[in-house]
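Same chain as my last thread, 203 residues:
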Amino acid sequence: MGRKSLKKTRQKEIVSAFYNVAKREGLENASIAKVAKEMGVNPSLIIHYFTSKEELIFGLINFILESYRFIYLAEEEQLNSRDRLIKVVDNLFSREWNALFDDGVFYSCFSLIFRSQRIKTEFKELHNHLRQLLSEVIEAAKIDGHLQIENSKQTSDLIFIMVEGVYYYLSLFDDEEVYNEKLLQYKKAAFEILNMDMTVEIT
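reply #2:
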């Protein structure tokens, strides 16, 4: 048990260092040697836990998932199903969501799906997992009578299609006011998909 816990801790430390190197120098320039230098350890220690750069990338994709997962877990116990849904949608269309993971590293990782079937599968599972989490939040609000929608999974899929397109598009804008204005516009559209008024407040 202790060794397994230590292994996971060390792997997280290595992936975090890999992410920092990739964010600073670009994923294509990140290497096991640079990660070792970042951590101040021998490269053999990195190879002990991750035998290749590709394995590090798989770890990074899981790191992305863990970074996004907290959006759904935040304040879960304190909120009812309606308020939790509102909170989740607010978070999805927020600076905090976009800042969870560096866009340059994310899209560099994503581009590898065209060269690696395994990475493509990893990303597909990541996106499906996030959609499933949102679907469960929507379904809970629906069951409690807060929503009038036909299909929670389809609604979740539509909202995530928006989320993915929104941040891709907004990455082209440097003007803070324009960015915030468009983000608010897209969040309003997401609430319209849910047949909810964006002005509702969490009680």
